[in-house]
Amino acid sequence: MRTMKMNTTFSKSRLLLVPVLVMLFAATVYASAPGITGTTFNLTARDAFISQPDGASVYSWGYGCSSAPSGFNPPATLMPGATCPTMQVPGPTLIVMEGQTVTVNLTNNLPTSAGNTSILFPGFNVTATGGVVGLLTHEALPCPTPTACTTNTVSYTFVASSPGTRAYYSGTQGDLQVEMGLYGAIIVVPTAVPTGCTAVGSIPAHYVAPGNSAEADYRLAASAYDNPRSCYDREYLFQFSEMDPGIHKNALAQVTARTGCAATSPTCHLDVPTEPYHPAYFMINGRSMPDDMDPNYAREYPHQPYNGNPHMHPGEQVLLRIIGQGRWQHPFHEHGNHVRILGRDGNLILSSTTAGEVNLAGPLLFTTTTTPGLAMDGIFYWTGKGLNWDPYGHNPASSDSTAKLPCTPDANGYNTAATTALNYYEWCQDHNKPLEAAPFGDVAGGGPATLPDPNILANGAWFGGSPYLGPNATVRAVGPTGTTPPSGTIANSPTGEAGFAFMWHSHNEREITTNNIFPGGMLMMMLVDSREFQIDESN
Amino acid sequence: MKKLYQAVLFVLLCCLTPLVANAQSFRVQCPTSTITHPNAANNNSEPAYTAPTNVNGAIKCQQISGGDGYSTMGDGTQTYMFSFGPLSGLSKIANGQPGTDFPSEFNVPSPSALLPGAPATMATPSSGTSVPIGFGYNGAVGLTADLDAIADGKCVAPCLDGHVDPRPIIDVGVLNGNIPAPLFAIDEDDEFFLTLTNVGMIMRPDLFEQHTVHFHGYPNASTFYDGVPDASVAINIGGSFTYYYLAPDAGTYFWHCHITPPEHLQMGMVGQIYVRPRQDRVALGGDLYASLQQQELDNRTKCDSTQDILCSNPLPAINTAATAASTVVNGGHSGGYAYNDGDGSTYYDVEYPIQIHGFDPSFHFVGMTFNPEQFADMKDKYFLLNGRSYPDTVTTGPLATQSADGKMHFSQPLPSIINIPAGKKALLRISDLDVTEYQTLASLGIPMTVIGYNAKLLRDQAGNNLYYNTNSITLAGGESLDVILDATDTTRYPSGSVFYLYTPNLDHLSNDAENFGGLMTEVRIN
Ligand SMILES: [Cu+2]
Ligand SMILES: [Cu+2]
To answer: Are A370 and A328 in contact (CB under 8 A)?
Structure first.
């Protein structure tokens, strides 16, 4: 493949590539869990080429919309540009309400030689009609001229019985069809707002820095489950999958060779070996790093609309919807804190079966292994509690009023009295505690650590420029030879964002490569942003 | 198009890098007191935990080198590594102990010149023995009086303020890599100062590799000290950087370099760290439930499940009235608790850190040459417990390897023999840093009781322990768990019996071409 050259040229410059990629491709764009809404979904299965950051266009199959969906969530008012193309990887995220009857009509528009296709909805009691009876469910036959066919559409009907995130995927020749991209997510959102959760659209007012507008609410629901411990403030959906380019190449060659063949012809089928398996692309939401950090619905990726680019403010409860697609397990490591697993495949894990039980019993994980077909919902947050130094670099002796904010502990030790405070959710025990032995600019000395002059270390592209969180503290933290790195040259600039960047990635580390090129693959940067920085999930 | 940009910027960055690097120098940090631990006299031992009103704990320090080295595989092959080595606590590391020092141990210059390859080249007896290595120095290699500061009147003799002489650091640090990397052990409430000193990779003069330390799994980590070069700073050759953390919640963590992880982890830059709980410091015979209630009075140490979804040790649902047993920290000779359980259920008599890893010999060969590496087809052929394959796992004492400098080096200091005194319990702190695949470890004989997962006690929000018995555990790289092997039944597990820990991934019971070996070790009842 044409992508192989780059590796030889750049294998030892991999580190240096990181800043390069960032500067070129990362804008300030965010994730959320976008998808289509309704009770009836008209889907199609088609082929197209998806794009990878090494320049490869990989022949794939995917689900898409055969007609406009009844809605998008987040709605177009919050997320302009939302589309549902006729083929996408992963397939459209179906967002439905708990208790509703859902109908999915699937039309098979794959090449005739690809044969039948279908969708499984594990975890639901599905009634399938139409098409032909296959091994696992009803399958839609291929049809070169759809208008003339009655058997190339199947219907699946089920009740969205309980909240949570689940996978859907092809139930026909899964070793090939799932590999080719026929998978997606379905999210069932609770209808009621549990006690203590905040209804969608009414999140509390945030601090708004001068020049910023208030942050919109991009949540699909107030809670992940019908349980008050599952309230959340933001949410992100991550689907992990891998691709063996050899399989895709072979499929394309055979499909091309059989163009126009009649379904009835005995030679009109594919014989693509799916073993031995040598995946070289490792994707989050169908994209490899750095493409995953580009916007949702970005025009560069007409068939990969969803991104992976989480942001959050300190103290926000962030719902992670994590699904293993493909065929391998991937140890997804969340830097920064643990994740409390709420449930698996829409099954909330509680400490007892007693009615009204609210205590959670799911594990706390810093590595959430993705398993094929398995979906997990979990809550993550970051506060900086227990660092033993003030990550805001507060200095009561400063002349800058922002450097002298109060921190009034609530019953749990956090500064939460004013939801509009810049340091909302600061951990007050460490308030005003210096990190550095010597003063650094306007940040007080007296702390335990002696920092080297930051100008003599190698700075990362997402390094905000100081040990501190947010532009105010970072700009005040001036080393002996000035601020570093120079503003304007990085993804997370000292004056603009200066968030804390945590790498979220597969810990099977060879999977953070794109066809042998590092960095790439299953890797994204999660940013904890000071509240003076506005998180806009609109793109 | 992308390629073109990359090529242009590569050239630019490439030529700028040396300018950035040349202002660095070596130094260490280990303050005898801080604002959190103001009384220097109290910081050289662990105080008893009685009340929630102070941070308690002590100060701990360690120095490590980042560089390269060689190790010996189970079939005798010498394997090239990118690796960390000890630059403090040398004697402890060589004896299979954590190399972590109190300030009174760390801030000690070497009494005699350290030879290249130390301690292997200065120890008697050397490799393959269970008797203590005859080399007693545990201070910070290179530490020396800051004569310039004394002359300038800025410091009073002996003035051991972190200033180092780089010569012994290079003598000891070069080609002195360990697999696994030096072991760290700290106690809750400790302030930990870890200095990484980049001595360069002698076998790869074409590379200007930086290194970092990522403390994997630390809750509420700071990015500055998270070791991700993209999100923080990376340490150039010839430089030192001191990582600072207040010890996080008790548990079994691990650490690794975060530079080009598929390469630096595969090449061997992986290590272990665990944090012992406050409960170890409860005075002998003290009430554990009442002690945990004291921890509930401080917001920093409490676990209120109604308020915090990410804490794992609420008060136990059942007060067992357990009292504090003898622990290393409260004056016993061995033993401790894995977590602040409040019911004594995580007690162990002996503990063993075990790290699972894998080496792909082709990748390591390519890593020693100047050729580009392939990641997609990486395939491990050596399966390692603490850097060794069977039968080396049951060899006592440090394994030594002769390196390209002609010197012997203690390349693999940790055996994996699980010695359990008859009638006692062993805690296995198991972590996995394999970069390619999942590995299973099974216990033939004594059941495994899993009590912790990913450095958290297995307990639900209602306080019920969720421990489970199993005969195998499966981990990916980037995961850890805590297992207790309970040998209290001396009828089933009499003195002198031997059991096995081995992998049922049967193809992993091999050392490259040798059909016997791999991920296996022995549990011996003494
Ligand atoms: Cu990482
Ligand atoms: Cu890690």
So the answer is: no
Q: Using 50, 70 and 90 to split pLDDT, how confident is the model at A32?
A: confident
Residue of A nearest to B303 (CA): A412
Contacts 24+ apart (CB under 8 A), B366-372: B367/B80, B367/B82, B367/B263, B367/B266, B367/B267, B368/B80, B368/B203, B368/B204, B370/B204, B370/B206, B372/A7, B372/A8, B372/A11, B372/A12
| Arithmetic mean of pLDDT, A70-76 | 92
A467:B310 CB<8 A = no
Calpha distance B31→A497 (Å, rounded)? 33
Tell me the pLDDT band of A457, cut-offs 50, 70 and 90. Answer: confident
**pLDDT higher than 90, residue A134:** yes
Chain A within 8 Å of B21 (Cβ-Cβ)? yes
The least confident of B314-318, B375-379, B502-506 is: B375-379
Strand ranges of the sheet holding A500-506, from the earlier edge strand across to the other edge: A311-312, A523-528, A500-506, A330-334, A367-370
Please state, in angstroms and rounded to a whole number, the distance separating the CA atoms of residues A290 and A281. Answer: 13
For residue B386, CA distances in Å to A238, A363, B232, B292 come to: 33, 27, 29, 34
Three-state secondary structure call for residue B359: strand
User: For position B130, what pLDDT does the model report?
Assistant: 60
Q: Where are the alpha helices (DSSP H) in B236-360?
A: 261-266, 288-295
Q: A280 and A273 in contact (C-beta within 8 Å)?
A: no
**Around Cβ A480, how many Cβ atoms within 10 Å?**
10
A333 sits in which H/E element:
strand A330-334
Cα angle for residues B70, B75, B78 (degrees, 5° grid)? 15
Among residues B117, B174, B165, the alpha carbon closest in space to that of B141 is found at B165
Q: Which residue on chain A is closest to B451 by alpha carbon?
A: A363
Task: Please indicate whether, in this complex, the C-beta atoms of A510 and B435 are within 8 angstroms of each other.
Answer: yes
Whether domain A29-264+279-354+374-383 has CATH 3.90.1150.10: the reply is no
Q: Which residue segments constitute the domains of chain B, with CATH numbers given?
A: 23-37+55-277 (2.60.40.420)
Average pLDDT over every residue of B264-269 = 96
Neighbours of B222 (CB within 10 A): 23
Q: Find, in chain B, the residue whose alpha carbon is nearest to that of A445.
A: B35
Find the mean pLDDT for residues A301-307: 97
Least confident segment among A24-28, B74-78, B488-492: A24-28
Task: Among B226, B299, B475, pick the best mutation site for testing chain A contact (most A Cβ within 10 A).
Answer: B299
ipTM of the prediction greater than 0.90, yes or no: yes
Joined tokens for residue B309 = 């979804």
Render pLDDT for B321-335 as a digit per residue (tens, 0 to 9). 999 999 988 888 889
Beta-strand relationship, B240-246 and B233-234: unpaired
A367 contacts A380 by C-beta, under 8 angstroms: no
Which of B245, B307, B479 has the CB atom closest to A331's CB atom?
B479
Contact list, B222 vs chain A (CB under 8 Å): 384, 387, 391, 467, 500
Average pLDDT of chain A to the nearest whole number: 90
For an interface test with A, give the residue of B309, B437, B467 to mutate (most A CBs within 10 A).
B309
Q: Please report which confidence band the pLDDT of residue B126 belongs to, taking 50, 70 and 90 as the band edges.
A: low
CA–CA gap between residue B314 and residue B323 (Å, rounded): 18
| Dihedrals phi, psi of A418, to nearest 5 degrees | -110, 115
Asked if the C-beta of A13 comes within 8 angstroms of chain B's C-beta atoms, the answer is yes
- Secondary structure of A417-446 in the HEC alphabet? CCCCCCCCCCEHHHCCCCCECCCECCECCC
* CA–CA gap between residue B248 and residue B436 (Å, rounded): 28
Mean pLDDT score of chain B: 92
H or E stretch covering A21: helix A14-25
Give the pLDDT mean for B488-503: 97
